[in-house]
């Protein structure tokens, strides 16, 4: 996840991170005097209005988030959060309970870290069939729902069977061969 950041933005972000490291939350109004006092010691000639503009740009780019103690540079420093993020990158379209099961984490821990990853735009979420599917924010596929379906075990069984047996088969025969209900077979074939 690479964003273009100007030198002025880097300078302000560095001061914001210093502020946040003192166990404070980011609040636009409270941080301005702190930034002004720090910048008096530098050769930069940024006025209050320009600092506010830069802060708004940093918020828009989600490098900092109002009400958070973290900046974008801190997000992946947490081991569990990085583990969740890496799993999502490697398994696009993964759903909540699969994250819990595969990573052996509690639902509260996964919820907290997913919210942080969403807040800072590391990941995106798409709702499908009463499930939240998670993708890397840069993931660009025309049909993420198709990705979700093809990652399911039943889909894999159907695809593998059809590849290995290309002579043609009815839904009823496929249902018997794979020991799946015919409604399930129909549902999956419709999407596939």
From TrEMBL:
Annotated HVO-0163 N-terminal HTH domain residues: 79-142
Any Pfam family the entry gives: HTH_HVO_0163_N
InterPro entries documented for this protein: HTH_HVO_0163_N, WH-like_DNA-bd_sf, WH_DNA-bd_sf
Protein's name according to its UniProt entry: HVO-0163 N-terminal HTH domain-containing protein
Source organism (scientific name): marine sediment metagenome
Upper taxonomic lineage: unclassified sequences, metagenomes, ecological metagenomes
């Amino acid at each position: 996840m690479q964003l273009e950041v100007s030198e002025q933005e880097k300078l302000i972000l560095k001061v914001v991170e210093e502020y946040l490291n003192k166990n404070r939350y980011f609040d636009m109004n409270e941080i301005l005097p702190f930034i002004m006092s720090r910048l008096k010691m530098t050769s930069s000639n940024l006025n209050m209005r320009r600092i506010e503009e830069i802060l708004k740009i940093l918020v828009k780019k989600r490098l900092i988030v109002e009400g958070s103690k973290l900046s974008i540079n801190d997000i992946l420093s947490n081991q569990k959060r990085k583990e969740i993020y890496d799993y999502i990158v490697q398994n696009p379209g993964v759903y909540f309970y699969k994250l819990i099961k595969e990573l052996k984490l509690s639902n509260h821990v996964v919820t907290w870290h997913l919210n942080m990853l969403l807040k800072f735009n590391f990941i995106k979420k798409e709702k499908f069939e009463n499930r939240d599917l998670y993708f890397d924010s840069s993931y660009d596929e025309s049909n993420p729902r198709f990705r979700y379906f093809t990652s399911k075990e039943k889909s894999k069984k159907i695809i593998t069977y059809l590849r290995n047996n290309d002579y043609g088969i009815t839904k009823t025969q496929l249902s018997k061969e794979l020991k799946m209900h015919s409604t399930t077979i129909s549902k999956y074939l419709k999407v596939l």
